[in-house]
Amino acid sequence: MAQFSVVKESDAPRPARQSGRLAARMREFEGYVDGVKRGEVGKLTTGRDETARGLALRISRAAKRKNRAIETWVVDNVVYFKVA
Length: 84
Fold this sequence. Notes:
84 residues; alpha+beta
């Protein structure tokens, strides 16, 4: 079971900052979301060391950050998504 406690803000460690590489990747996927209009479907194919599930998760999170509702599905290891 988890243990809960309260500490002073000054005693808590500072939150980790996003690396430039992570921020760039987040912007990349947000760009994919912005690039798909109603009536269109985006298609993401896996690259080296990537899984379809990972791509689907990243595109879903990017849509959430952009306050956009999308629908994703995977067929033959390819991720498709559309604006809902």
